[in-house]
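STRUCTURE:
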């Protein structure tokens, strides 16, 4: 059965590749996925699925109904691209300047379309209905998952699965894990306000820059001194901004950064400790502090039953030896987390890298690319999941 699915996916490789390259060439940013939504929804309708367009933003749902079927499974694909200029020299390079599919959402949509094609060809053998969730705005918090869920995309759904390509994993490999799969991804924003003046007379001003430098140093040591060894967490200051020229002490300095955690209690703890540290540094330097901790996506927490289903489906497609169900938790964030807070299921990654071909760049790199063999594998696994 499953080898037949993979054979069928390989037989439509040309269609999969051309579909992916068309989507790659015409990327669109979060909540602007108009062409993307139209092209993929049209493709689903041509396969015989019932499509509800503009379900939330440019997102849509596509149903493959099985009369008398026992339940419904949902398969999610994200649609948006990144505000990034692609540096690859390929015929299908992004034609939208400053926008590119450098996270591989074009591959996720293509895998879902491929699965829909395989399932449509095997409609008579399906035991349950299938819903495809084409979700906009994964890259931009608060993300599209919450909006899709509020609009009812999970109504009548029993379980839900999501897939992501992973270029740091060789093509042919599949990985997932029970429990926390990705980190909660939060943002910190700090403004330290003093009093500006002439740089030649610093005693007449209240310089915020030394305070900002002290805060950066303290924040970077927060995990090593306040978090138990072996407990994963990240606090990174990624932007420091102050002043306009060489001879003016500025009124304020600004810091931004990210906090990544897998434990809800630790997330709360770091929010409080960063605030305490910020206020302490500000007081020590005579500055005023404005501190914001903006919560991003929650951690993806895979269900044990969902991981077992992924393992069975992936093992049938790529072989048991190529499936890792103890994949290390990843510190990037993903709003698929919210789907799993409402329904059982799992998130998994499909290898898209190929060292021999030089396909080694990580997601969000301007030189990111995939081994397109992953399209066939992803489509076959999604189809196998749906077939139970």
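SEQUENCE:
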């Amino acid at each position: 059965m499953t080898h037949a699915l993979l054979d069928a996916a390989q037989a439509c490789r040309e269609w999969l590749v051309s579909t992916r390259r068309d989507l790659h060439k015409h990327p669109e940013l979060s909540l602007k996925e108009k062409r993307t939504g139209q092209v993929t929804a049209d493709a689903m309708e041509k396969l015989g699925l019932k499509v509800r367009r503009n379900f939330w933003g440019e997102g849509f749902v596509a149903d493959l109904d099985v009369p008398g079927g026992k339940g419904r499974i949902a398969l999610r694909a994200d649609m948006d691209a990144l505000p990034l200029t692609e540096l690859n020299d390929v015929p299908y390079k992004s034609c939208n300047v400053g926008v590119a599919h450098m996270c591989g959402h074009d591959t996720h949509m293509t895998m879902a379309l491929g699965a829909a094609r395989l399932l449509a060809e095997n409609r008579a053998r399906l035991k349950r209905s299938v819903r495809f969730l084409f979700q906009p705005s994964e890259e931009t918090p608060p993300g599209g998952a919450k909006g899709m869920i509020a609009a009812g995309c999970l109504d009548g759904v029993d379980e839900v699965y999501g897939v992501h390509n992973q270029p740091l994993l060789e093509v042919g490999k599949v990985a997932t894990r029970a429990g926390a799969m990705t980190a909660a991804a939060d943002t910190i924003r700090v403004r330290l306000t003093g009093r500006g003046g002439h740089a030649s007379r610093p005693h007449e001003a209240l310089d915020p820059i030394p305070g900002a430098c002290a805060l950066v140093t303290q924040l970077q040591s927060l995990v090593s001194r306040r978090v138990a060894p072996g407990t994963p967490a990240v606090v990174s200051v990624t932007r420091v901004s102050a002043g306009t020229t060489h001879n003016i002490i500025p009124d304020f300095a600004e810091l931004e950064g990210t906090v990544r955690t897998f434990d809800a209690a630790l997330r709360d703890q770091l929010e409080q400790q960063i605030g305490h540290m910020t206020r302490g540094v500000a007081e020590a330097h005579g500055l005023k502090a404005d501190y914001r901790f903006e919560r991003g996506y929650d951690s993806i927490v895979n269900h044990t039953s969902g991981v077992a289903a992924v393992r069975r489906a992936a093992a049938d497609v790529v072989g048991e030896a190529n499936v890792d169900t103890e994949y290390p938790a990843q510190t990037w964030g993903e709003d698929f987390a919210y789907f799993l807070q409402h329904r059982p299921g799992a998130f998994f990654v499909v290898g898209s890298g190929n060292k021999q071909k030089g396909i080694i760049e990580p997601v969000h790199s301007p030189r990111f690319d995939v081994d397109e063999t992953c399209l066939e594998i992803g489509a076959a696994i999604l189809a196998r999941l749906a077939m139970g």
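REMARK: The chain has a mean pLDDT of 97.
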